[in-house]
Design a protein that fits this description.
The structure is a single chain. By secondary structure, this protein is an alpha/beta fold. The chain has one domain: Sortase (Sortase, Chain: A, Beta Barrel), CATH 2.40.260. Strands 2-3-4-5-8-9-7-6 form an eight-stranded mixed beta barrel.
Length: about 210
């Protein structure tokens, strides 16, 4: 029986082929080798992250803040607008991919990408590390620059290839947010979580100063 990564309800939009072989290696040796490769990979990635974090520039175009109540690292994370290749927008938070929708539109796919590891001492560090923990019904909240909040509920999770642009397309008649990060342990594919808008909360009206003041 085949198992799917990240839980039984994760869809995998890829074709995987398996090839038979008469040779059967020692299972314990394979486990040790796998652990060694993972540790080496993580060490290389952290080294690259540290170097990139020192050179990246802080973006200036914050458009929203992202909060996911069930993920402790995602509390008011700044979301910057930019092209998918804009590494500076990912440096201090998450990236709203340029050309995709915004939550205040009637029909939109608000596409937000974030690092699995990110940069130490910034808001991007481990921001989407446990994105795979999201389940159906979990809440995702976006807050715009005026303080209006958009409440979404997760309804879908999928693994796609790195060049699958279809996940950025809007769904007819729906306003959704799509969260994307890399898969583990090799960062080869993309984990995509979708949530649908269920409620909008107006920004609080600022109290006017009294005449005495």
């Amino acid at each position: 029986m085949r198992t799917r990564p990240y839980g039984s309800w994760t869809r995998q939009n890829k074709r995987t082929r398996y090839y038979g072989s008469k040779w059967r290696p020692n299972r314990g040796l394979l486990v040790l080798l796998g652990l060694a490769l993972v540790l080496i990979s993580v060490g290389i990635v952290f080294a690259d992250v540290r170097e990139a974090g020192e050179s990246a520039q802080t973006p200036k175009s914050e458009t929203m803040k992202l909060t996911i109540p069930t993920l402790k690292r995602v509390k008011g994370v700044p979301v910057y607008n930019g092209p998918a290749t804009d590494e500076s927008a990912l440096h201090d938070g998450a990236l709203h991919v340029e050309g995709t929708g915004f939550p205040w539109q009637a029909q939109a796919n608000v596409y937000i990408a974030g690092h699995r590891l990110g940069y130490p001492r910034t808001r991007s560090f481990l921001v989407f590390w446990d994105l795979n923990e999201l389940r159906r019904g979990h809440k995702v909240r976006l807050t715009d620059s005026e303080g209006q909040r958009y409440i979404y509920r997760v309804f879908d999770r999928e693994i796609v290839g790195p060049n699958d642009g279809s996940v950025k397309d809007p769904l007819p008649g729906k306003n959704i947010v799509t969260l994307q990060t890399c898969t583990l342990p090799d960062y080869a594919d993309r984990l995509v979580v979708r949530a649908e808008l269920v409620r909008t909360v107006q920004a609080p009206v600022p109290q006017q100063a009294s005449a005495a003041e």
